[in-house]
Amino acid sequence: MELGITLVCPVCGGSGLVQRDVLWPGLIAEWGLNSEEAGRISRQQGECCLSCGSNLRSRTLAGGLLECLNRRESLQALTQTPPLPAVRLLEINQAGTLTPYLRRFPNYCFAAYPELDMQHMDLPAESFDFIIHSDTLEHLPDPVAGLRECRRVLSPAGCLLLTIPVVPTRLTRRRQGLPPSYHGNPAEKPADQIVWSEYGADFYLDFIAAGWTKISCFTLGTPDSLAVIANK
Ligand SMILES: [Zn+2]
Questions:
Q1: What is the DSSP letter of 69?
Q2: 204 CA to middle of ligand 1, Å?
Q3: 132 CA → ligand 1 middle, Å
Q4: Sequence-ordered list of residues with C-beta below 8 angstroms from that of 35, at least 6 positions apart, any chain
Q5: pLDDT for the residue numbered 7
Q6: What is the distance in A from the centroid of ligand 1 to the CA of 51?
Q7: How far is the CA of 74 from the centre of ligand 1 (A)?
Q8: What are the backbone dihedrals phi and psi of residue 44, each rounded to the nearest 5 degrees, phi first?
């Protein structure tokens, strides 16, 4: 499988995409998205694999993980064929649609808010080789603290792999002092889905502020596909 070809799904190896509606007028207005920017977010979140349902951010995250593991098969194929890499893998919250595959890794650990607050993790230093989360950072009041904690918990050769919604045509805006804006189900407005950071082209500055010095981007070769890979 060639991961650079967008139409091949890194999660399941399938092909074929469908665009689903994921944005609603209230969120677009709160975010201040113009039509081009709304189209970008819509593709990140709503362009889904016909076979496994993974959206573009989940597919990109899977592609980034396979890249880090130097594997070329799909995540589904990899995790159906033991032995799996014995990496100590921490998934924080549900990383898109990857959870059923990630949990097959022998040294897999799952933790979610509120039992685990990424800003203050009750975990030993250097206890994991991979930390994976997806569209979580923008929901932390202090994202730099969360990134600093991920760095502390990772082993020296460890890898942080994540997605965030990024609008590359603007700079990051913090929502402190603005009316609350929520992701997820617009009817529910769950407290953990409140948005604190709307990331833009300077998203990497939070990583630098948290002490990371090696920050790279993985994409599936299409605009709006972005996963961040940070190494210690
Ligand atoms: Zn798929």
A1: T
A2: 28
A3: 19
A4: none
A5: 75
A6: 5
A7: 9
A8: -55, -45
Q: Which residues pair with 18 in a beta bridge?
A: 48
Residue ranges with strand state E in 15-75: 17-19, 47-49
Name the CA radius of gyration of the chain, rounded: 17
Tokens of 16: 């074929």
Name the residues around ion ligand 1, CB cutoff 5 A: 9, 11-12, 14, 49, 51-52, 54
Give 42 Cα–ligand 1 centroid separation in angstroms.
18
**pLDDT (tens digit per residue) in 32-91:** 999 999 999 999 999 999 999 999 999 999 999 999 999 999 999 999 998 999 999 999
How far does residue 122's CA lie from ligand 1's centre (Å)? 34
Q: What is the pLDDT of residues 94-110, one digit of tens each?
A: 999 999 999 999 999 99
Give tens-digit pLDDT for 143-168: 999 999 999 999 999 999 999 999 99
Rounded to the nearest angstrom, the distance between the alpha carbon of 11 and the centre of ligand 1 is 5
The two tokens of residue 39 are 């189209």
Its pTM stands at 0.94
Write the single-letter amino acid at 63. Answer: G
Please name each of the domains of the chain with its CATH number.
17-231 (3.40.50)
* Cis previous bond, 114, omega within 30: yes
